[in-house]
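ARCHIVE CARD
CATEGORY: sequence design from structure
SOURCE FIELD: tokenized fold
FIELD CONTENT:
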């Protein structure tokens, strides 16, 4: 059974947490004791129905304020598929949380309050879905019960969103727009009798039938070396293994490989997973490999298959989302971590700041504040073996670290 990762997005009070809670409720993914606890909590709030948003808003501050602050990951399944849903905050102040919550998703649910229509956050969330190359975007026009289940209002919002997508086209993205009421369950798991004018499938059916994106094992082989294993015992005194987690592709015994950045070539001799010897290993597996030749390999190096080499980059451009309260300083030295490699780097220039609320580009700026997204030029002290994010997402991302505080200050996507 495959797994679909879904990210939610929307402005404050658009009903993201309620929608997820309703999906859990309708798919019988909630234990009775949790249902009882939600019922008691709902009564304490003075409401006469189950407040299903409480299932995902786990922090005390979230429950007190009625908003989502942190990213919550929710797991449930149906007979057809398993799901992991990232419930991300709607506040603009938590844009960075939304970026991290959506970074590994195959689908994005963008919620719109039917009473308000498209707002600034709608633009922001659609831009982020494009930036992260999420292949499936489902626009949920929520709270249709509060507008009398009006087809006219839904059609107007659908037209407005179609106009928005024309400003930021993405030929790789599949777009679906659906009317629903997460509070009452309309069009979530079953077609709504109150919106018989809508001829599409309910939300859960759409999610069950979405294709998952290209499997990581089908991408070029990439393995960042995390640790060099040299046992200190007589039985294995000649053993030298290279441990790491395969980020993409697969590798077989006997494959010819290149070590980057040195460019030295050799062949895979053995592949081990714990103490078990394997003939083949694939993406997301943590393995130890040995090679036939005495090649200098250390932590931070990349092992790739011959013929699948990637570019060694010291000057490149990337989108970054700034995560720190201290603004970005151009030409300040940061640490750039790509895979297991850590190198000194500088943001040499800010090409433009992306105004995600209007989809306009703001040029001629030297400042980047927390939660802002910009397209920048970066120079590194040593080459990194990186792919473009478009072609190989796991090997096209990096983080910037303040070398004095050790805080992660930015997340980046190469050549997006």
């Amino acid at each position: 059974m495959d797994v679909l990762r879904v990210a939610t997005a929307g402005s404050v009070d658009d009903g993201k947490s309620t929608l997820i809670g309703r999906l859990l409720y309708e798919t019988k993914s909630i234990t009775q004791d949790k249902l009882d606890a939600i019922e008691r909590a709902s009564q304490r709030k003075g409401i006469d129905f189950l407040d299903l948003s409480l299932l995902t808003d786990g922090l005390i501050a979230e429950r007190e304020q009625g908003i989502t602050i942190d990213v919550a990951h929710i797991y449930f399944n149906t007979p057809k598929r398993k799901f992991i849903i990232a419930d991300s905050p709607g506040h603009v102040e938590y844009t960075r949380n939304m970026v991290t919550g959506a970074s590994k998703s195959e689908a994005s649910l963008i919620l719109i309050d039917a009473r308000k229509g498209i707002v600034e956050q709608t633009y922001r969330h659609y831009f982020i879905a494009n930036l992260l190359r999420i292949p499936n975007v489902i626009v949920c026009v929520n709270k249709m019960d509060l507008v009398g289940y009006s087809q006219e209002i839904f059609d107007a919002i659908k037209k407005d969103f179609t106009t928005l997508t024309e400003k930021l086209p993405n030929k790789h993205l599949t777009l679906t727009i659906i009317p629903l009421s997460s509070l009452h369950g309309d069009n979530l798991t079953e077609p709504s009798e109150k919106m018989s004018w809508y001829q599409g499938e309910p939300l859960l059916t759409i999610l069950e039938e979405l294709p998952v994106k290209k499997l990581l094992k089908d991408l070029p082989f990439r393995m960042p070396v995390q640790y060099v294993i040299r046992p200190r015992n007589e039985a294995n005194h000649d053993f030298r293994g290279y441990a790491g987690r395969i980020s993409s592709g697969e590798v077989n015994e006997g494959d010819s490989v290149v070590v980057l950045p040195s460019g030295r070539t050799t062949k895979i001799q053995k592949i081990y997973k714990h103490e078990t010897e394997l003939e083949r290993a694939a993406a997301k597996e943590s393995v130890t490999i040995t090679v036939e030749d005495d090649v200098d390999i250390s932590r931070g190096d990349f092992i790739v298959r011959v013929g699948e080499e990637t570019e060694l980059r010291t000057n490149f451009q990337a989108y970054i989302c700034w995560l720190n309260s201290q603004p970005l300083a151009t030409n300040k030295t940061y640490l750039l971590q790509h895979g297991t490699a850590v190198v000194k780097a500088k943001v040499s220039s800010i090409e433009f700041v992306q105004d995600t609320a209007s989809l306009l580009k703001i040029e001629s700026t030297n400042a980047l504040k927390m939660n802002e997204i910009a397209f920048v030029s970066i120079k590194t002290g040593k080459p990194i073996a990186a792919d473009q994010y478009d072609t190989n997402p796991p090997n096209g991302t990096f983080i910037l670290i303040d070398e004095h505080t050790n805080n992660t200050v930015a997340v980046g996507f190469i050549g997006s």
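CARD ANNOTATION: The first helix runs from residue 16 to 26. DSSP finds seven helices and 23 strands in the chain.
SHELF: design records, drawer C
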